[in-house]
Design goal:
- This is Peptidase, S49 family protein.
- GO terms for molecular function: peptidase activity.
- Pfam families: Peptidase_S49.
- The protein has about 280 residues and is of the alpha/beta class.
- Among the domains are: about 110 residues, 2-enoyl-CoA Hydratase, Chain A, domain 1; about 70 residues, no CATH class.
- About 35% of the residues lie in helices and about 20% in strands.
- It is built from eight helices and eleven strands.
- A five-stranded parallel beta sheet has the order 1-4-7-8-10, covered by helices on one side. A two-stranded antiparallel ribbon has the order 2-3.
- β7, α4 and β8 form a beta-alpha-beta unit.
- α4 packs parallel to α5.
- The longest helix is centred in the last third of the chain and has 26 residues.
- The radius of gyration is 25 Å and the shape is globular.
Length: about 280
């Protein structure tokens, strides 16, 4: 994969600062409990924002509550000739979020879009970072988020540094391929399933269900509000012409943008991509 390139000194984990915090949670938390009982100093700051209600046998600490502050984000210092490992998995929200798993006593961290874009921008100008290894698992995000990530990858590549993408999941859909197609090189799991079927949309209608349940729905909509179709599923049994028109326009615009982006980076014509989707030519 990296044939012809100079050997790299190390691989930098994109969220290693958060991983270091995660490892200290169980030990620091119980230390915090003991300190609280002994009226010692407050909880240390290197624990994530957690809210616990622990029940002990002793009545004097029954239902005690502990709240600890979120640590400040610290910059990761990369060694010379490093490769930045960016792993995208799960839902990508606007902000980085963390959730404590009581069963495993570990913190599950989901990297947010703002931190991801910030990291890619910093890596672009970091002389120690030679390139990016982009790993995509079961990532889930909307078109706008995927577009932002793609733009950030393209912006990073303007520095002359490489981006290698690897789809590690067993299924590669349009969304994952759209993000990873911005890389210089693109790889996938050998036995994974890939589908390139374009975009579509559907609506769920409730009128027949409401009729069977004898439920009346009061709809307030002006007579000239044909394109305000949010309430149509409650009093119609199928899409109106205006609703179908606006949804088709919306989907077509997104599909055209995705098709043009993929065509530009993969050196494939947009018409061929459209034909592949229509004929279901890429489905294995």
């Amino acid at each position: 994969m990296f044939e012809g390139m100079k050997p790299f000194g190390s691989i930098v984990q994109f969220h290693s600062d958060q991983a270091a915090i995660i490892g200290n949670v169980p030990k620091q938390f119980f230390k915090c409990v003991v300190m609280k009982k002994r009226n010692a100093r407050p909880c240390p700051d290197n624990i994530g924002r957690l809210f616990f209600v622990f029940v002990f046998n002793r009545k004097d600490i029954l239902g005690s509550q502990y709240i600890c502050r979120t640590p400040k984000r610290s910059e990761i210092m990369a060694e010379a000739n490093s490769v930045l490992h960016v792993k995208l998995d799960g839902v990508i929200g606007e902000k980085t979020s963390s959730k404590f798993d009581v069963v495993s006593m570990t913190m599950n961290v989901n990297l947010g879009l703002s931190d991801l874009l910030h990291g890619l921008e910093k890596a672009k100008t970091d002389k120690n970072v030679q390139g990016i290894f982009l790993e995509l698992g079961n990532v889930s995000c909307g078109y706008a988020t995927a577009k932002e990530i793609r733009n950030a990858i393209n912006n990073f590549e303007e520095s002359g540094k490489f981006v290698v993408a690897y789809n590690s999941g067993e299924y590669v859909g349009l969304g994952k391929y759209y993000i990873s197609s911005a890389a210089n090189e693109l790889y996938g799991f050998p036995t994974s399933t890939m589908e390139f079927l374009g975009l579509g949309g559907e609506l769920t209608f409730f009128k027949k269900t409401f009729d069977k349940l004898d439920i009346d729905v009061e709809i307030i909509r002006g007579t000239n509000n044909d394109f305000k179709s949010a309430v149509e599923p409650f009093f119609l049994e199928k899409m109106s012409d205006s609703s179908r028109l606006q949804m088709q326009t919306y989907v077509d615009n997104i599909w055209r943008s995705m098709r043009e982006d993929i065509a530009k980076d993969r050196k494939i014509s947009a018409d061929d991509l459209n034909r592949y989707a229509d004929e279901m030519a890429i489905k294995r």
